[in-house]
Design the sequence.
């Protein structure tokens, strides 16, 4: 077992890769009552076209999420019931590129860890239970259909990406999930849930050597075939956005408007990807944060509300920034922001703004480390991208004003811009 | 070195007529300050209090506009700051929240704690004023912000349905009010009138300051005495939340909106609140009924009948209102309703297994212990006890829940009465 100490933030991470390939990371949190464990596979909604050995496979949209749901049901019991008996709360989520299973508990950590490892590694599906799940997930999809914040965001991705499956909704559609069978679920599980494709992170009230021993023993008891040779197949994605503008109607109080910029600087991994993410977030904060003159101008003119926000998503194969929120006048908001971006690209940003936002980011990072959920999920996400959550401070400290000004010039190209708007239906309201 | 906290040990005392509650712990990398000002939820004051939350966070005399204020917070290492209103029973709580990093993790000495207390003092006691009242320009802008916020509750259909059933069910009771107020009240609110109202609130209403982090109590007290000075009179006696209410016939309300999923909410009165002896049993009842993935609603509406993605129940501990809810296909309305009502009936008849009791006790105990790892939840737990007039320690509450038996469950459950059944549905199809 190796360990790495991060002095400035007073944390120590323990690590071991087991003989079957499973990467295990443990972080004891002094004084904490709860333990949070997350068992994650590099497999998400975008992995619907792949090659295993010589066989090329296409599976229905939404199958990774469907599989996540079905992992909880076993032949003679339901996994939620097991966790409830120990008092743990458990859950799972599927994103574009990973599926995570988790529990949190203030006791019985050993028992809960065994349940977690076993249920994720021992699939059981029947045609009957697969059919039943279609009703439940159908309602989940409809719930999101009625959510205007979700709609405006997913529509933006549809506009930006022409081919890449990040444009497809994680849960799929009622039609696509209708094609899912237990056989397909078994196939996806065998392909993507091999230990060498997974990471286990445990954080909280734990004794690392004892926990690691338990995990080792659990894994030794199980037989795994050699890791399958999996090649994920993605279509060629053009650099430009597919549509510059996409609109939808739902019942909302105010229109919603998001502006996306599709990243053209792709293919980064490790610290380079982390640096690009942190630079981009700093840049967005300088331009659009609550401490920016633009934000205050927009707020004072009534063009935005406190829902106005920004974010940057950084993956090796796709990345984008999003800025926006509720607004009474999407077109005027778009025009104002576009003008600000043009002006800023000409002038650059100032040292004062840069330093202020950097301080802010350091504080935000420290605050986030209070949350075991954040630590576990973010750590996993960064590891999958070849970097480390605990590299954030040093990388952030190394970012210069020049770096951010360079980001400003390369990120905001007009051809990379798409806009998504959701307006009220005429029949909406009481 | 700190030891794991197993009890929530705020040390309380009065400073300048303010209740100060400090919890010293080294487990967090930040220091959290929360100020809570209590107001009776009422038609007369609800919009004014909500508007105050907007105005107070807008500007102070030292930081006279939002840009200066927000940039100051950025310099305080991205301090998180918000002022908001929350509803707890028939109380509207004006809540100020500030969180700053602890200095020990920063490379420079910054006196961040004192600066944080000073900022809180600025916001509460030195707001930006013109001609001895809130500035007209900010008042006008924040009225608009509040209006947009009220209009936007329709965006979240579960919250919207919850507010609508509450309005229908509690017509004539303060509890029916949306905590953000009513747009119709906005035009009549003046800068001078609102400032006068705020002065009275600050002088007379219950006011508490909570601090959680690796801090010295004496130091916090000193800073507070220095930066937060208010003239406090006798604290006002606010009317209690009405929990006991006879239920007549069950009302059914159907509302139409452009949605694809129906929201079925069933509102019940329990006649029991946080201060009652039966409260721990009621929490258990809610857990067995719909609090968890092992609960009757989840198992029967979702897992067995495949009718919904979410099917749950929630309890307002101060008002004693229990709400069952599920997102369903409207064509399945009668079926879903029948199953949900059946689950309540089963609990009331004591058709509860030993396993259900065991699971609910275990998950509830876990849920309550987990709040020990969140500064915000530590404060919330302690304040709920103070507000209800019955303070239970965490250990006491866990012990009381552990001791709940079948008699306690059926006694608490038998007091639950269905009041209103509400369906938010699409615009299509027949009535």
Sequence:
């Amino acid at each position: 077992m190796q360990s790495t100490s991060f002095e400035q933030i007073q944390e120590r991470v323990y690590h071991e890769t087991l003989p079957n390939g499973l990467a295990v990371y443990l972080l004891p949190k002094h004084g904490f009552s709860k333990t949070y464990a997350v068992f994650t596979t590099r497999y998400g909604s975008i992995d619907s076209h792949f090659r295993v050995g010589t066989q090329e496979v296409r599976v229905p949209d939404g199958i990774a999420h469907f599989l996540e749901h079905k992992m909880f049901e076993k032949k003679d019991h339901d996994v939620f019931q097991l966790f409830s008996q120990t008092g743990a709360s458990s859950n799972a989520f599927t994103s574009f590129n990973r599926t995570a299973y988790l529990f949190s508990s203030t006791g019985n950590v050993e028992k809960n860890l065994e349940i977690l490892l076993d249920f994720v590694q021992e699939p059981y599906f029947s045609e009957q239970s697969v059919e039943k799940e279609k009703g439940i997930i159908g309602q989940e999809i409809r719930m999101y259909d009625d959510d205007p914040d979700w709609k405006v965001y997913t529509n933006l991705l549809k506009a930006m990406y022409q081919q890449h499956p990040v444009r497809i909704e994680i849960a799929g559609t009622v039609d696509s999930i209708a094609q899912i069978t237990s056989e397909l679920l078994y196939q996806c599980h065998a392909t993507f849930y091999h230990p060498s494709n997974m990471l286990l992170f445990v954080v909280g009230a734990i004794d690392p050597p004892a926990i690691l021993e338990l995990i080792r023993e659990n894994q030794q008891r199980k037989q795994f075939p050699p890791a399958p040779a999996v090649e994920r197949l993605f279509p060629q994605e053009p650099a430009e956005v597919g549509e510059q503008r996409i609109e939808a109607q739902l019942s909302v109080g105010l229109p919603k408007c998001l502006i996306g910029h599709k990243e053209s600087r792709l293919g980064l991994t490790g610290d380079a990807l982390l640096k690009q993410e942190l630079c981009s977030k700093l840049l967005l904060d300088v331009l659009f944060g609550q401490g920016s003159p633009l934000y205050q101008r927009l707020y004072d003119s009534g063009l935005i509300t406190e829902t106005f926000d920004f974010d940057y998503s950084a993956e090796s194969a796709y990345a984008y920034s999003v800025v926006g929120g509720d607004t009474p006048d999407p077109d005027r908001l778009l025009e104002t922001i576009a003008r600000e971006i043009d002006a800023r690209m000409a002038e650059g940003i100032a040292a004062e703004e840069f330093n202020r936002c950097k301080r802010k980011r350091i504080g935000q990072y420290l605050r986030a480390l209070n949350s075991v959920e954040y630590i576990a999920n973010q750590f996993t996400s960064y590891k999958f991208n070849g970097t480390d959550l605990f590299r954030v401070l040093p990388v952030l400290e190394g970012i210069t004003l020049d770096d951010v000004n360079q980001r400003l010039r390369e990120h905001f190209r007009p051809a990379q811009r798409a806009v998504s708007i959701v307006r009220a239906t005429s029949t909406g309201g009481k | 070195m700190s030891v794991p906290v197993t009890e929530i040990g705020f040390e309380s005392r009065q400073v300048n007529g303010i209740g100060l509650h400090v919890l010293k712990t080294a487990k967090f990398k930040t220091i959290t300050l929360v100020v809570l000002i209590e107001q009776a939820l009422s038609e007369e004051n609800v919009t004014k209090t909500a508007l105050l939350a907007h105005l107070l966070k807008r500007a102070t005399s030292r930081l006279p506009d939002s840009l200066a204020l927000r940039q100051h917070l950025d310099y305080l290492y991205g301090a998180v700051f918000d002022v908001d209103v929350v509803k707890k029973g028939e109380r509207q709580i004006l809540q100020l929240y500030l969180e700053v990093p602890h200095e020990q993790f920063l490379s420079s000495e910054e006196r961040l704690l004192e600066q944080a207390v000073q900022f809180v003092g600025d916001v509460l006691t030195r707001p930006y004023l013109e001609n001895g009242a809130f500035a007209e320009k900010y008042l006008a802008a924040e009225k608009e912000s509040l209006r947009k916020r009220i209009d936007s509750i329709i965006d979240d259909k579960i919250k919207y349905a919850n507010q609508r059933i509450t309005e229908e069910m509690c017509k004539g009771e303060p509890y029916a009010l949306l905590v953000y107020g009513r747009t119709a009240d906005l035009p009549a609110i003046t800068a001078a009138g609102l400032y006068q109202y705020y002065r009275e609130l600050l002088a007379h209403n219950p006011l508490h300051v909570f601090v959680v982090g690796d801090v010295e109590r004496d130091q916090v007290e000193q800073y507070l005495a220095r930066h937060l000075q208010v003239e406090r009179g006798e604290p006002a006696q606010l009317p209690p939340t009405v929990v006991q209410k006879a239920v007549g016939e069950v009302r059914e309300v159907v509302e139409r909106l452009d949605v694809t999923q129906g929201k079925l909410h069933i509102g019940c009165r329990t006649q029991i609140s946080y201060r009652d002896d039966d409260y721990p049993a009621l929490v258990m009842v809610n857990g067995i009924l719909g609090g968890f993935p092992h609960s009757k609603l989840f198992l029967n509406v979702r897992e067995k009948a495949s009718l919904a993605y979410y099917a749950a129940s929630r309890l307002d501990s101060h008002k004693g209102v229990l709400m069952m809810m599920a997102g369903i296909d409207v064509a399945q309305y009668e079926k879903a309703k029948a199953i949900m009502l059946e689950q309540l009936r089963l609990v009331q008849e004591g058709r509860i297994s030993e396993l259900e009791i065991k699971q609910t006790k275990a998950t509830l105990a876990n849920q309550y212990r987990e709040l020990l790892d969140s500064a915000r939840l530590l404060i919330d737990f302690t304040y709920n006890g103070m507000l209800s007039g019955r303070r239970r320690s965490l250990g006491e509450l866990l012990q009381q829940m552990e001791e709940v038996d079948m008699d306690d469950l059926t006694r608490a459950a038998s007091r639950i009465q269905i009041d209103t059944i509400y369906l938010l549905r699409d615009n299509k199809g027949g009535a």
In short: Chain B touches chain A through 79 residues (CB under 8 Å). The longest helix of chain B spans residues 354-370. DSSP finds 14 helices and 13 strands in chain B. Confidence is low (pLDDT under 50) at residues 1-5 of chain B.
